[in-house]
Amino acid sequence: MKLLYIDLDGVVADFVSAMNSHPSRNQPPYDLDPDTIPGLFRNLEPIKDAIASVNKLLNSDKYEVYILSTAPWNNPSAWTDKRLWIEEQFGDKINRKLILTHRKDLVKGDILIDDRPNNGAKDFEGQWLQYGSEIYPDWNSILKYLL
């Protein structure tokens, strides 16, 4: 069974839309550092096909699936909000399978699905599937490759 890590923001949860539409987005200090808006990560909308796709991977006997995400250091509520959000979306199937780190390159595994090269994603020891790229533009392309 292969170890599969899935980034949360921009891959499963639509952080960008929530950030851009938040009422505090253009108010100091959040205008310069919007990911520090308290509660921002709590009620994100899922990305199209993400929940069903992650569930297919969770139910697959090919992968042991973990959520591998980074939470802003200056927004402690984000750490709790991410944990509660994935529980609401996936229930017990994702219990104790959330890893929050600023160094994804230190995590051991086979595959990482992430939309950005940041926080060590581009240096991950296994295969990096860049969600939203030309090769993997959406969840259908990811599932076609993985399953």
Shape: globular
Sheet having the most strands: 5 strands, parallel
**Cα gyration radius (Å):** 15 Å
Give the SSE string: EHHEHEEEH
CATH superfamily: HAD superfamily/HAD-like
The structure class reads: alpha/beta
How far apart are the first and last residues' alpha carbons, in Å?
13 Å
The CATH topology name reads Rossmann fold
Unreliable stretches (pLDDT < 50, length at least 5) are none
Strand content: 15-25%
Count up the domains: 1
Count helical runs: 4
CATH architecture designation: 3-Layer(aba) Sandwich
Widest β-sheet, arrangement of strands: 3-2-1-4-5
Any idea of the CATH class? Alpha Beta
Number of strands: 5
pLDDT averaged residue by residue: 96
Portion in helices: 25-40%
